[in-house]
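tokens incoming
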């Protein structure tokens, strides 16, 4: 009895952030352990634990980075585990926790509501349960629709069983902005298949916009208004997509693999090139074939990522928007940060700067550590890139 009370007391001592972090860590460890077992590999041999944990981490954190070929190394069971980890990571650990409690008809206590508030990035405790149910219904509906659209192309190409599984897997991977694929070379074999690229692009954007934005869009006819978050997200997302498309078209339009495509396929691949860096992780054009300008532009879009409360990662479009608006306000000599007739709370601005500083510090530290511990080929090394920038600066001077 004493030990039970002690464990219960420890649970209540965890902050919402600690609880969420522990939940994701537990999901990664369980997923990594399952992937390391023989049944998860196609050759029925145990997978190196480091590779299994890396794959589980990449799936839960929806990054798409892999050390093993997803299509060849994993068995059907392994791919199903990866697909489940992607879904949990994309929709959120708490969404599944609350859904399980809902199905079991257990009451969601105050502690869980506070944790859910932090996980969903909402301001109020009330309405969280309904939002979770909405998120799950919306996500399943969009992914199912995406899978059905992909089946139109995949079933004739791969057969019924494989075509259905491929459609479901890639619909989930695209909507959750995960970037895992079962083709072995991402989507490079679909350069001349605008239909598949378009469907996956729509799924990526749908997942990256965020559930709160979609709720505002779908209820606009009833409410006749958008929240400030939705307006800012839609504006920043649109500007990033349009600017990315134009810049990639100007930089890569007549180079490398793009030059061999007809104008329509070129436009579709350029659009996909602008959409997928927003943490989706797919590519239809080999990044080895892109210029340094395009790679830097891709890094910029990856850093910004998707929207708050979405399946995508990154700094977030709303945070980036607040930083830009604040900078413009300073340039104009204004004391307050205003946008669309509203003054942005100074706490929101300060939080955005803290996120910028924190993420840049982590990225810089990681780059330095990787530069020390890893040896890259000369053509992709940091030294070569630094030399080109030095030469460019000298010519400017």
């Amino acid at each position: 009895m004493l030990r039970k009370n002690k464990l219960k007391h420890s649970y209540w001592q965890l902050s919402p952030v600690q609880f969420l972090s522990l939940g994701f860590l537990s999901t990664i460890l369980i997923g990594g352990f399952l992937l390391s077992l023989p049944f998860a590999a196609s050759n029925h041999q145990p997978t190196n634990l480091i590779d299994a944990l890396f794959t589980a981490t990449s799936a839960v954190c929806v990054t798409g980075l892999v050390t093993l070929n997803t299509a060849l190394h994993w068995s059907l069971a392994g791919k199903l585990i990866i697909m489940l980890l992607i879904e949990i990571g994309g929709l959120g650990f708490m969404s599944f926790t609350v859904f399980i409690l809902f199905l079991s008809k257990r009451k969601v206590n105050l502690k869980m509501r506070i944790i859910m508030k932090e996980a969903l990035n909402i301001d109020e405790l009330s309405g969280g349960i309904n939002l979770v149910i909405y998120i799950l219904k919306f996500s399943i509906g969009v992914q199912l629709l995406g899978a059905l659209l992909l089946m139109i192309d995949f079933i004739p190409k791969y057969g019924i069983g494989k075509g259905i599984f491929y459609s479901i897997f890639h619909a989930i991977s695209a909507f959750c902005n995960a970037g895992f694929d079962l083709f072995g070379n991402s989507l490079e074999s679909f350069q001349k298949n605008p239909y598949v690229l378009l469907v996956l692009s729509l799924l990526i954007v749908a997942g990256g916009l965020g559930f709160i934005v979609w709720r505002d869009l779908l209820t606009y006819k009833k409410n006749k208004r958008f929240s400030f978050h939705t307006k800012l997200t839609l504006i920043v997302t649109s500007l990033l997509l349009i600017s990315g498309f134009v810049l990639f078209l100007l930089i890569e339009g007549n180079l490398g693999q793009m030059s061999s495509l007809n104008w329509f396929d070129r436009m579709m691949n350029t659009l996909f090139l602008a959409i997928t860096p927003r943490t989706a992780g797919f590519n239809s054009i080999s990044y080895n074939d892109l210029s340094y300008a395009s790679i830097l532009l891709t890094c910029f879009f990856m850093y910004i990522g998707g929207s708050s409360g979405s399946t995508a990662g990154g700094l977030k479009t709303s945070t980036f928007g607040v930083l830009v608006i604040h900078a413009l306000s300073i340039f104009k000599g204004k004391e307050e940060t205003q946008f669309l007739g509203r003054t942005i709370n100074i706490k929101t601005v300060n939080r955005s700067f803290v996120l910028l500083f924190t993420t840049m510090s982590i990225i810089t530290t990681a780059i330095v550590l990787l530069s020390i511990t890893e040896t890259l080929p000369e053509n992709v090394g940091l030294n070569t890139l630094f030399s080109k920038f030095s030469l460019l600066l000298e010519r400017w001077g």
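note: The beta strands are 338-339, 342-343.
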